[in-house]
Design a protein that fits this description.
8-stranded parallel β-barrel, two-stranded antiparallel ribbon, TIM Barrel, alpha/beta, 10 strands, 295 residues, binds zinc ion
């Protein structure tokens, strides 16, 4: 079968451009990075020099796509206006950086609302519409909504909820989606059998449209279907398992999209590379490294 575009969330410790050194060790065609400290509200300024360095190293690497994952703190669907505004600022600051480095997307979660999902969806829609408005003209990087594990009052775990958010977005061409296998599975979406996988894709297509499905996060799950416990596991080690992923990756609408691993890491690339090797093996994809031009 044809090859897949796969990679990892990699570290930018020592500078954004350092991502490509780790990407090479882990044989990535796509990478995901943070562009600011994920646990802080403050977004450090990235200099033009850093942007140039990043793009030079990207040019030399075999990485075809780069996505930025938002910091953990923003909560666009909060019931508190102050927190929504703080979140909007953080998302806006990171959107700018994602655009400046030439990223293919900026991925974020919709967060949670303690008054329930209906209010949460409204709040998320309003924050995201504002985010698009503020960045449309000068920083139009694709804004990618990630599916959530759905614990407590978290928004955006089911395809129906993602569709409700989608419905409210004013500038739809600006937005897309990233489905996370661990999150979907623990939120109660079966995805290990050919039948359930076709149903999931058909539902997404019907309620949102497959052309808006841009990325997958490929993670095994430490806890079972519907547990709502978001703990990623290494591929084949968790409840989704090798056969589950084999089935999942055999779907042509899934395997043609970039697949990003956020699996637990030891820090030793020789060990950590096991996940992408197994992913490619389960996808039946023989990996031929691409030329530095990314062709
Ligand atoms: Zn995420
Ligand atoms: Zn994820």
């Amino acid at each position: 079968m044809n090859k897949i575009i796969a990679g990892y969330h990699v570290s930018v410790s020592g500078g954004l451009h350092r991502a490509f050194a780790e990407a090479a060790l882990l044989d990535c065609d796509v990478i995901q990075i943070f562009v600011s400290s994920p646990q802080m509200w403050h977004t450090a300024v990235i200099s033009d020099k850093e942007v140039t360095l990043f793009q030079e190293d990207w040019e030399k690497s075999s990485v075809q796509q780069v996505v930025v994952h938002a910091a953990y703190l923003p909560n666009p669907s909060s019931h508190k206006a102050t927190l929504r505004n703080l979140s909007l600022k953080k998302l806006k600051d990171e959107t700018k950086i994602a655009y400046r480095i030439g990223a293919n997307g900026y991925i974020f979660h919709c967060g949670s609302n303690q008054n329930g999902n209906e209010e949460g969806i409204k709040a998320a829609v309003s924050t995201l519409n504002r985010l698009a408005e503020l960045t449309d003209e000068n920083w139009p990087v694709p804004l990618i909504i990630e599916s959530d594990a759905g614990a407590g009052n978290r928004i955006g775990d089911t395809i129906e909820e993602l569709a409700a958010i989608w419905k409210g977005l004013d500038n739809k061409p600006r937005f897309g989606f990233c489905l996370d296998t661990c999150h979907m599975f623990v939120s109660g979406i079966e995805l290990r059998t050919p039948n359930s996988i076709s149903q999931l894709i058909a539902k997404f297509d019907k309620l949102i449209g497959l052309e808006h499905l841009k990325f997958f996060h490929i993670n095994d799950a430490m806890f079972d279907l519907g547990s709502k416990k978001d703990r990623h596991d290494n591929i084949g080690q968790g409840f989704i398992g090798e056969q589950g992923f084999k089935n999942f990756l055999s779907n042509p609408d899934i395997r043609k999209r970039p697949l990003i691993l956020e699996t637990p890491r030891t820090g030793d690339p020789k060990i950590d590379i096991k996940d992408i090797r197994l992913l490619r093996k389960l996808a039946g994809a023989n990996h031929i490294p691409t030329s530095p031009s990314g062709s």
